[in-house]
Amino acid sequence: MSIKKQYLKKEPVCKVTFRIANGHGLEANDIRLLGDFNNWDASTGSMKKLKSGEFTQVLKLETGREYQFRYFVDGAFWENEPEADKLIPNGFDKDDYNSVIVL
């Protein structure tokens, strides 16, 4: 899993690339990137599956903000991003966290 940030010079946005490799214990058919940026709506967060088996999604997000997010894998379980800027409790379970990206 990885996150790449590219700040745009002419706009107050950051182009963020989210990438997940299949394998290493994760064999997925569908991964949804859900978070504050899409109101946690599973119908809008489908990541593109590449021929390599990796999943990717690029978003333009407003800078000066923090966004909570998680990956929803095969409609069955949640994964956090190990390269997230931080983790915070999500309020559903005392041991459950959301990933956070700070722009």
How many independent structural domains? 1
Mean pLDDT: 92
Question: What level of helicity do the residues show?
Answer: under 10%
Task: Name the helix and strand elements from N-terminus to C-terminus, one letter apiece.
Answer: EEEEEEEEE
**Largest sheet properties:** 5 strands, antiparallel
Distance between the termini: 18 Å
* Bulk shape: globular
| Structural class based on helices, strands and sheet pairing | mainly beta
Which SSEs are present, and which pair or pack?
Elements: E1 2-7, E2 13-20, E3 31-35, E4 48-49, E5 55-62, E6 66-73, E7 77-79, E8 86-89, E9 97-102
Provide structural commentary.
The chain has 103 residues and is mostly beta strands. It has one domain: Immunoglobulin-like (Sandwich). It has no helices and 9 strands. The protein has strands spanning 2-7, 13-20, 31-35, 48-49, 55-62, 66-73, 77-79, 86-89, 97-102. The strands form 2 sheets. Strands 3, 6, 7, 8 and 9 form a 5-stranded antiparallel sheet that branches. A hairpin with a 7-residue loop joins strand 8 and strand 9 (97-102). It is globular, with a radius of gyration of 13 Å. The two termini are 18 Å apart. The mean pLDDT is 92.
Brief synopsis:
The chain has no helices and nine strands. By secondary structure, it is mostly beta strands.
Descriptive tags:
Immunoglobulin-like, four-stranded antiparallel β-sheet, mainly beta
